[in-house]
Design goal:
It is a single chain. This protein is an alpha/beta fold and 433 residues long. It has two domains: 194 residues, Rossmann fold; 238 residues, Rossmann fold (3-Layer(aba) Sandwich), CATH 3.40.50.720. It has 18 helices and 14 strands. Helix 9 crosses helix 11 and helix 9 runs parallel beside helix 12. The termini are far apart. Bound molecules: uridine-5'-diphosphate-xylopyranose. The site of uridine-5'-diphosphate-xylopyranose has 19 residues, from helix 9.
């Protein structure tokens, strides 16, 4: 099939390359000329494992190209909209400007009977509004909402072998076209849920709200563990054995960040308020508050471990991205902790395998170093804030040898407390004594 993908960020670039891998003829469109040039020459504009290989493979077949001109989408049979829906600057709501812009641009070029598919995460009710907008613009293209559940760091696998496909449609022709697009994925036995626009939009919002709630639940237990001397990691292991609960997404630490979970729960709250159902998701305010408290807790622990003040103390911060296997520092708890320590006057030396460039754009005041060894040299405290494998595998003896004094905050609860204590470290995790 002939496919266009509008928006070539974390979601769109992977989706476009994956659609070409499925055998379709794909054009990826983005307004950022530099990004388009990079993608067209096989360079991924951000870190995503497997994307460079997928991009190279798809470009080599001649089935994938990139352009800044929306006119190049005109002959596509299916258009995917994968633009961002960031949080509005002065409220919790989602900024739909890019989605509306993409739909307006497509309404002008999409062929009659072609299908426009929304993939962006949007407040429930957006698809219906967009359909009306398309009709007013005189377009008779079809519309579907097909939310994306990919995780950064696993985006390629999540796109090519998703847990499920969800179609929000108002017309069987839309279902048929999506079935054709995803034929290979469906043949592999992937579950497919066909529903209306509102349910499809809500599935995505609900999934992210649930995941965020699960993380804040275990972080709330970490707070209780801290007050009682209990160990939240053992608690998570024990309750996780119950298949109804499950161990995944039960890791306590400095909480969730990134371009999705934080802004999605806030947008959900804002939308529920508009719908007169604020009380239904009022707990999400707590989920957000618990999450933000854990960053403060990590900073308080640093102050405590340095006997009351971090002022002019040398602190190594390991990790800047919101999670490992990503260069993304959007709403990153790790970067936030580094910035807060710096704000308290600490001499912070921060490092990350992939995130320094993005971190520097957000917090140019911080001191960045290329390696963990440089960050650790003469430090009085090390704070592990993003659980990259290379930090999890650090040898406590070697680390102690580099530092001025052996103190560690394991803000992701991924180190072995016994091993670090045996090497002479004062060890503190979050929610474990
Ligand atoms: C998330 C959803 O998982 C994905 O389905 C959706 O499409 C987009 O949002 P992503 O933001 O890439 O994906 O990252 P995810 O792996 O979900 O992690 C989110 C945050 O939660 C990270 O900051 C991570 O460190 C944190 N987290 C995750 C925890 O603090 N504890 C856990 O147990 C799991």
């Amino acid at each position: 099939m002939r496919i266009s993908v509008i928006g070539c960020g974390y979601l769109g670039a992977v989706h476009a390359s994956a659609m070409a891998k499925l055998g379709h003829d794909v054009v990826g469109i983005d307004t950022d000329a530099e990004k388009v040039a990079k993608l067209g020459s096989g360079v991924a504009p951000f870190f995503e494992p497997g994307l460079p290989e997928l991009l190279a493979e798809s470009l080599a077949t001649g089935r994938l190209r990139f352009s800044t001109d929306i006119g190049d989408a005109a002959d596509a049979q299916v258009h995917f909209v994968a633009v961002g829906t960031p949080q509005l600057p002065y409220s919790d709501g989602a900024d739909l400007r890019f989605v509306r812009g993409a739909f307006d641009a497509l309404a002008a070029v999409a062929a009659p009977g072609s299908l426009i598919v929304g993939k962006s995460t949007v407040p429930v009710g957006t698809a219906a509004e967009l359909e009306e907008r398309m009709r007013r613009a005189g377009s008779d293209a079809l519309l579907a909402w097909n939310p994306e559940f990919l995780r950064e760091g696993f985006a390629v696998a999540d796109t090519l072998t998703p847990d499920r496909l969800v179609y929000g449609v108002a017309d069987e022709r839309a279902t048929d076209l999506l079935d054709e697009v995803y034929a290979q994925i469906l043949d592999a036995g992937t579950p497919r849920i066909v529903t209306d626009f509102a349910t499809a939009e809500l599935v995505k919002t609900a999934a992210n709200a649930f995941l965020a709630t699960k993380i804040s639940f275990i972080n709330a237990m970490a707070e209780i563990a801290e007050a009682t001397g209990a160990d939240v990691t053992t608690l998570a292991d024990a309750i996780g054995h119950d298949a109804r609960i499950g161990r995944r997404f039960l890791n306590a630490g400095i909480g969730f960040g990134g371009g999705c979970l934080p802004k999605d729960i806030r947008a959900f709250t804002a939308r529920a308020e508009e719908l007169g159902r604020a009380e239904s998701v009022a707990f999400l305010r707590q989920v957000d508050a618990i999450n933000l408290r854990r960053r403060e807790r990590a900073v308080d622990l640093a102050v405590e471990m340095l006997d009351g003040s971090v002022f002019e103390r040398r602190i190594a911060v390991l990790g800047l991205t919101f999670k490992p296997q990503s260069d993304d520092t959007r709403d990153s708890p790790a970067l936030d902790v580094a910035a807060r320590l710096h704000g308290l006057g600490a001499r912070v030396l921060a490092t990350d395998p992939e995130g320094i460039e993005n971190a520097r754009l957000r917090h140019p005041q911080l001191e960045y170093v290329a390696t963990a060894s440089e960050a650790l040299a003469d430090a009085e405290l090390v704070v592990l804030v993003t659980e990259w494998p290379e930090y999890r595998e650090l040898e406590p003896d070697l680390v102690a040898g580099l530092m001025a004094s052996a103190r560690v905050i394991d803000a992701r609860n991924v180190l072995d407390p016994a091993a670090w204590r045996a090497a002479g470290f004062a060890y503190r995790g979050l929610g474990r004594s």
